[in-house]
C-alpha cells in the first residue's frame, strides 16, 4: 500500500522531493461492506484491555491501542497487511483514502458527547442513530448508554471508512461498554482487562436481540453506493439522529458527506469539527456554508462554539423541520 500520509500540523510543513512526486497518487477507494453484529464477533479476541475515558459526561471505556496492535501481530488469519499495521504505529494522523484516522479518539468527539447529554435523546425519541466516520465511537456509545439503561428499542449504525477500525476498535468498544453497563460489572477501575468467553459473546448478542437493539457495521466511502445499502434495509431519512466528529477536514469529501446527511437525517444531525484544518483546507465554515445551501429554509441550522482555544472547535446543529411526519419532539436547544 503506497500512499502519502499527513498530520494536521499547524503550519505548512516543507515537503521532500519524494513526497511531492507521490502526492498525486490517488489510491482506489476501499470496498463497501455491511456486517451484522453476529458476523463481526469472530474478530473479538479472548481478552480485551481497556482504559477509562476522561472528560466525558458519561462513564465510557475504550480499548487500549496497544491491545489492538498485539492482536494484529498475533493473529493467524491476518487479513490486515503488515503495512496496515504500520499505519497504526505511524506518526501520520491519516493517509487519505487508505486510512482515515479512526483508530484514535479525536477531541471533537468529546465535545459531541457533551452535546448529546444536553439533547435528552430518550425523551425526544432519538433512538435510530447513525454515526458517520465513527472510529472509536464515543458519541454513539454515549447514546447507547442512555438507551441501554432504559432498554429502549433502537437501531445503531456504526460507519467508518476502514473495516479494520470497526473490527478492532469500534466493536470491542461496544462490547466493553455493554459489559460495564450490565449490573454485575464494576467500571470504577482506570485500566483493566476482561476475559471474553463464547458464553459472554452469546449473552451480548442475546441481550441486544431481547431488547430490540439492532446494531450494524458499515465500512467504506460515503456516496450513492453506500447509500444503496442503507436504503435497502432502512429506506430514506430513517435516522432520527446522525452524529459525526472530525469528518469535515477534506474538502473533496464534503460533498459525499453532505449527501449522506441529506439522504438519512429524519430529525437531527450533529456534526463536530475544528474551525480550521490546517494544510487540508476543510473548516466548519466551509462545511456550514455548503450544508446551508443544501437544506430547506424551514430547517433550523446553526453553529455552536465548543472551544475558543488556539484551534477553535464548533458544532453544527441541523434540525430537519421540513420532513412532515417527524416522530421526535420539537427542539429545545437554543443558540
Ligand atoms: C479523523 S477521523 C475521526 C474519528 C472519530 N469520529 C473521532 O472523532 O474520534 C475521521 C473519520 O471519518 C471517516 N471518513 C473520512 N473520510 C471518509 C470518507 N470519504 N468516507 C467514509 N468515511 C470517511 C473515517 O472513517 C474516520 O474514522
Automatic annotation (TrEMBL):
Disordered, as annotated region: 1-31
One GO BP annotation of this record: methylation
Highest taxon of source: Eukaryota
EC number(s) reported in the record: 2.1.1.85
InterPro entries: Methyltransf_16, SAM-dependent_MTases_sf
Keyword annotations from UniProtKB, A to Z: Cytoplasm, Methyltransferase, Nucleus, S-adenosyl-L-methionine, Transferase
Localization annotation: Cytoplasm; Nucleus
A molecular function (GO) term: protein-L-histidine N-tele-methyltransferase activity
One GO cellular component term: cytoplasm
Family: Belongs to the methyltransferase superfamily. METTL18 family.
Protein name: protein-histidine N-methyltransferase
Amino acid at each position: 500500500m503506497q500512499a502519502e500520509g499527513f498530520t494536521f500540523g499547524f503550519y505548512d510543513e516543507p515537503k521532500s522531493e519524494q513526497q511531492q512526486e507521490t502526492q498525486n497518487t490517488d489510491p482506489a477507494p476501499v470496498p463497501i461492506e455491511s456486517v451484522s453484529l453476529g458476523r463481526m464477533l469472530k474478530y473479538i479476541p479472548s481478552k480485551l484491555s481497556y482504559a477509562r475515558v476522561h472528560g466525558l459526561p458519561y462513564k465510557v471505556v475504550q480499548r487500549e491501542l496497544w491491545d489492538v496492535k498485539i492482536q494484529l501481530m498475533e493473529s493467524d488469519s491476518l487479513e490486515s497487511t503488515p503495512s496496515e499495521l504500520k499505519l497504526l504505529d505511524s506518526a501520520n494522523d491519516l493517509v487519505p483514502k487508505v486510512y482515515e484516522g479512526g483508530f484514535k479518539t479525536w477531541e471533537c468527539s468529546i465535545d459531541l458527547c457533551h452535546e448529546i447529554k444536553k439533547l435528552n435523546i430518550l425523551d425526544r425519541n432519538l433512538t435510530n442513530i447513525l454515526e458517520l466516520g465513527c472510529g472509536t465511537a464515543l458519541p454513539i456509545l454515549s447514546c447507547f448508554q442512555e438507551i441501554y439503561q432504559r432498554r429502549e428499542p433502537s437501531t445503531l449504525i456504526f460507519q467508518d471508512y476502514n473495516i479494520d477500525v470497526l473490527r478492532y476498535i469500534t466493536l470491542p468498544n461496544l462490547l466493553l461498554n455493554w459489559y460495564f453497563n450490565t449490573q454485575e460489572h464494576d467500571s470504577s477501575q482506570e485500566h483493566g482487562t476482561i476475559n471474553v468467553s463464547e458464553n459472554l459473546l452469546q449473552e451480548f448478542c442475546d441481550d441486544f436481540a431481547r431488547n430490540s437493539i439492532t446494531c450494524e457495521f458499515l465500512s467504506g466511502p460515503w456516496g450513492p453506493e453506500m447509500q444503496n445499502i442503507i436504503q435497502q434495509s432502512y429506506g430514506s431519512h430513517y435516522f432520527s439522529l446522525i452524529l459525526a466528529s472530525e469528518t469535515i477536514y477534506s474538502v473533496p469529501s464534503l460533498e459525499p458527506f453532505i449527501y449522506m446527511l441529506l439522504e438519512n437525517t429524519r430529525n437531527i444531525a450533529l456534526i463536530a469539527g475544528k474551525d480550521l484544518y490546517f494544510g487540508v483546507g476543510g473548516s466548519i465554515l466551509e462545511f456550514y456554508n455548503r450544508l446551508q445551501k443544501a437544506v430547506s429554509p424551514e430547517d433550523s441550522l446553526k453553529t455552536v462554539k465548543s472551544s475558543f482555544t488556539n484551534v477553535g472547535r464548533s458544532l453544527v446543529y441541523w434540525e430537519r423541520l421540513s420532513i412532515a411526519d417527524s416522530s421526535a419532539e420539537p427542539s429545545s436547544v437554543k443558540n
